[in-house]
Design a protein that fits this description.
Length: about 325
């Protein structure tokens, strides 16, 4: 059997030799070059000038006497020695970052980072955050509206609120994460009363072929919605302006430009005020065929962290009050 490794001493007498520890900023620069793939990308990631990153790399090379990077036709890359060195220090850098973040979270010194679908953030969440702030004055939050999902395991955010279409394919929750369904809502078509009055009557999903459909980043959502209602939209659900985000298609619908896809939570204020009308409301041909859900996701090991738990509880309750059947 191999001999047991000697235990490391962390007493003052057991400190690593000074020469064994290059400046941490230089190590961080090397780490960024390795992870991001080059000096310029590392400079962008660390918000430093690329010359500063190059200087940090030279510092470690001088410190160790080893060549860590080399120039190639495609740019600067790590040498075999550089890759081996980074592989040995990367875990230590991750450990330092994680320990620091955990301490900051526990002390409440960092805002709760929330990534949220733009439609929900713009049309529903921001107008109700005052109630959360009043209930939990000690919890600071930072909301980022985005269609992108953060790397929760990599601490890019604390909470992710996603809108997931459920046309028969279960949504996959990554290992290490936990999810709560906030609301289950059908995807609906909405348009302004003026638009509907001026256009042909819509009695069946097939009638949408004679109408202007408003698209976000692509034609897929409308094609899927139509297919779920037994309609092949490939002949007419193509072309036209792409508006990329739901709050833009809703705004276009308010201005009478066509029919947008939405849900009862995001479109609630417009429907209540009469600015928009649900297409096919009460008609069984239009109902119940396009389920979707808002999911609250966070790391499983931080699910009960006070700030995460408080925001989750408040959000779940607030949505349930407004959409009781969701």
């Amino acid at each position: 059997m191999p001999a047991d490794k000697p235990k490391r001493s962390f007493s003052p007498q057991g400190l690593p030799p000074r020469k064994a520890l290059p400046p941490f900023e230089a190590l961080r620069a090397l780490d960024a070059v390795a992870r991001l793939g080059g000096i310029r990308k590392a400079a962008q990631g660390l918000e430093r000038d690329h010359a500063v990153i190059s200087r940090h790399i030279r510092t470690i090379e001088t410190w160790t006497g080893a060549t860590l990077v080399e120039r190639t036709p495609t740019g600067v890359v790590l040498t075999d020695t550089g890759r081996d060195y980074h592989a040995r220090i990367a875990e230590a850098i991750d450990t330092i970052a994680q320990a620091t973040l955990d301490m900051m979270k526990q002390s409440g010194s960092q805002p709760l980072q929330i990534w949220c679908m733009p439609g929900l953030a713009f049309h529903w969440l921001t107008g109700r955050l005052g109630a959360f702030e009043a209930a939990y004055p000690g919890v600071d939050i930072e909301v980022r509206p985005t269609d992108m999902s953060p790397d929760l395991m990599g601490n890019e955010a604390d909470v992710d609120i996603r809108f997931v279409q459920q046309y028969g394919t279960p949504y996959h929750i990554d290992q290490g994460l936990r999810a709560l369904e906030l609301a289950n809502l059908p995807i609906i078509g909405v348009a302004s009363p003026g638009y509907l009055k001026a256009r042909p009557v819509i009695e069946r999903p097939e009638d949408l072929a004679r109408h202007q459909l408003l698209h976000e980043e692509g034609y897929g959502p409308w094609l899927e919605w139509l297919a779920a209602h037994g309609v092949d939209g490939s002949d007419y659900c193509q072309g036209g302006t792409l508006l990329w985000q739901g709050h833009l298609t809703l705004d276009a619908a308010r201005h009478g430009r066509g029919i947008a896809l939405s849900n009862h939570l995001v479109a609630a204020a417009d429907l209540a005020a009469g600015r928009l009308v649900e297409v096919g409301a009460g008609n069984p041909l239009f109902s119940g065929k396009t389920p979707a859900a808002y999911l609250f996701m966070a790391r499983a090991d931080r699910w009960e962290q006070p700030s995460v738990r408080r925001f989750r509880s408040w959000l779940h309750t607030a949505i349930a009050k407004e959409v009781p059947d969701a």
